[in-house]
Amino acid sequence: IQESYRLPQQLVLSGRDGDRVLASTAHEGTDYLRSVAGTAEAVTWSAPDGLEIDGILCRPAGDGPFPLVVNIHGGPIWQFRDMWSMKYPWVPLLVSRGYAVLNPNPRGSSGRGQAFAGLVVGDMGGADTLDYLSGIDALVERGVVDGSRVGLIGASYGGYMSSWLVTQDPRFAAAVPISPVTDWYSQGFTSNIAAWGNRFLDADPTQPGSRVHTRSPVLHAAKARTPCLNIAGALDNCTPPTQAQEFHHALRAHGVPSVLVIYPQEGHGVRAYPAQIDFMTRMLDWFERYMPGEGARATHRETERTSA
């Protein structure tokens, strides 16, 4: 099976005479998507402790600096590779509207061996936090990214990190946590994967002051300043919708703009139509409201011209 950010999945028979495509998912829709999805390139940077971190940067045409959305993968033991649309439909959509999208592989990601993956065990929200922040700093220093327009999006563990990062650094202009964990204590007593969370935190929820408490975004919400669009599925047994609800109320209690959207027929993530269309519309509106890209600015200018 072959694919890349700009190549829809295709089944290929490889032999001495080269590759022969047996089946392809390409069609007029994928042709259009390629025309607006920009390019993807591998990037690397050094974390504060010297560990090399890699990722894939998807970006529009031009030199930048671009507004940046950091797309955080789930797992945490998973990885981004050069795949069609980076697996997430919001990546090419954001690029088409003038955003660069960084898809990072922090410590804990797969693809670099057990030792690298194991670095996140017992430290979720610890050193991997700095992997994301140092990646943003590197792209700003290289002139690719506008440091005043940086946002976050992610689902599952990516939803946790999107919620956690806004409590650890005030730089973020907007965030969209999807199916997050925001309170490891209540997660441990309402989720069907509670044992996973306790093992990966290496923490006991019955012990006050453990990482169950110190690494929960809701307990750090007083430090947040970032407007958050909190997304959950009502049928999610992994990260129950009450996780997004808790963070929403915590943010509102501290005067931070927050919206909570719970899709009644969705589970762990937003996957079905028409819920996905509704979500993508809300997501794009959220970023364009708080950190507009060139697509939003062009729409605004056209609206002003038409009104005049």
Strand content: 15-25%
Q: What's the rounded overall pLDDT mean?
A: 94
Query: What sort of overall outline do the alpha carbons produce when their principal axes are compared?
Result: globular
Q: From the helix content, strand content and strand pairing, which structural class follows?
A: alpha/beta
* Fraction of residues in helix: 25-40%
Describe this structure in words.
By secondary structure, the chain is of the alpha/beta class. The protein folds into 2 domains: 1-36, no CATH class; 39-307, Alpha/Beta hydrolase fold, catalytic domain (Rossmann fold), CATH 3.40.50.1820. It has 11 helices and 11 strands. The protein has an 8-stranded mixed β-sheet, with helices on both faces. A 3-stranded antiparallel β-sheet has the order 1-2-3, with no helix packed on it. A hairpin with a 2-residue loop joins strand 2 and strand 3. Helix 6 (184-190) runs antiparallel to helix 7. The longest helix has 16 residues, at 275-290. 44% of the residues are buried.
